Amino acid sequence: MFAVPANSPHLRKSGSRPVVYDLDEFEEENGADESLLHSVEGNDSRGGATPMNGSGMMPSPVLLWRFKVLLFLIWGCICCKIGWDSVMRMSADKRELFLYEAFLYFNPLLLAALMVWLWGINLWVFAQGGVNYAKIFDLDQNHLTHGEIWKCAMWMTIIVPTSMTAYIYLYSHGEVAYAASQPVLLYAAIVMVLIFPFDIFYFSSRYFFLRTLWRIVFPLQAISFADFFLADILTSMVKVFSDLERSVCRMVHQQVATIAWLEADSVCGSHSVVIPLVLVLPYLFRFNQCLRQYKDTGEKTSLLNALKYSTAVPVIFLSALKYHVFPEQWTNFYRPLWLLSSVVNSSYSFYWDVTRDWDLSGFTRIFKFSKPHLFSYLLYGRRWVYVWVIGSNLVLRCTWTYKLSAHLRHNYLTVFTIAALEIFRRFQWIFFRVENEWNKMNNKSHMQLSTSEKSNEEENLLHSMNYNV
């Protein structure tokens, strides 16, 4: 049996509180350690034999970090070498189709890993900037820190390409059955980790994530900030869901590692009617949330927000009609409608991002770090930051329409790049959306505080008047 540290984050209990060190306490402990070290050195100089503490033999964090980076680079080079040699073993006519199939199984997980990496950066910036994101999302004391998020992303980045390399290697060497098992085992392992019922592997965070997903699919109660925030992120990952649907479809029909079944009109092909249905699901979930918010609050802005998500539906279904109508009908009638609906969706979404989700008046504090840092001087209060965010958001909103269009899915590398850029756009969006919510919470608390102080002053004044009478 291997000895596991008691404070390991992988074994953190859902009811336990993570250890948080205060800066002053940390300095005091460092001072104590230094004094202890001086005393040990003094004893050594006098000839006394004092056993060395085991913690003193641990490598420095910087050295350990560099060693991990070196191992990561070596691993990446090995995977690239094995994958390239395996692909070169295949015939030229089979190579492109096989890469397309391999890309189908593993690219949604790579995009998900990218989102996790960027979410860790979001949390790190919030922590540096003094934004209490745990209060905004109503997280418990066991929520994952940015370091733990990055650790999860690192393992995803290692496991997924390793499985992909094994898939390519086994198929190129004639082990088709073993190659077909690679994506199946990978997907099964991910599902098992998410639904693992025991109190390990960040149980409370997994439970919070799955519970939020359930509330998104079935909005049977009041919508919280975490509910519609995650639903917004899901709308930026429709590429992931559509490819997951086709991957699972091929697994169910035992078509993994069978290039002959990659025809577009097959049951799991790119012309399947299931693809637009999967693409539209995140927008329908968000649409239902807006209706539920209007029912609970009566705010008309919720209806306008619901209208925004409904504009994505014509883009998706008009695009899918290309494979089910005559070419003349598509060129003369449906394509102009598709272009019009794309412009409406992109314009409306961009307007809502800037004026509603972000609220330009809130562009004042998100890059103001509580501690001196390089980002403080590069980002905070710079006009180019806002110009870049607004300009890139507009461009990426327009290109995202390309991804929503099912009839443009044949160029999978281009679509993958656009999907990654959309995730990056959402990464930028998160900064200002959370900042805007944090400002609203602070303003609300200040208003409540001023109201309570005013009522106390009125009571004191009334009491003094009665006393004088």
In whole angstroms, the N-to-C terminal distance is 82 Å
Bin the helical content: over 70%
Number of strands: 0
The dominant shape is globular
**How many helix segments?**
16
Structural class from helices and strands? mainly alpha
Q: Return the string of H and E elements.
A: HHHHHHHHHHHHHHHH
Q: Radius of gyration, Cα only, in angstroms?
A: 27 Å
Name the beta content range.
under 5%
How would you characterize the largest beta sheet?
none
Pfam families: EXS (PF03124)
Keywords: Membrane, Transmembrane, Transmembrane helix
Membrane topology: Multi-pass membrane protein
Protein name: EXS (ERD1/XPR1/SYG1) family protein
How do the helices and strands line up, and which of them pair or pack?
Layout: H1 23-45, H2 61-88, H3 92-129, H4 133-136, H5 146-172, H6 176-195, H7 203-217, H8 225-235, H9 238-252, H10 274-297, H11 300-310, H12 312-320, H13 327-358, H14 374-378, H15 383-404, H16 412-468
Helix pairs in contact: 2-5, 3-5, 3-9, 3-16, 5-6, 7-8, 8-10, 9-10, 10-11, 10-12, 12-13, 13-15, 15-16
Subcellular location: Membrane
Keywords: Membrane, Transmembrane, Transmembrane helix
Transmembrane segments: 63-84, 104-127, 152-172, 184-204
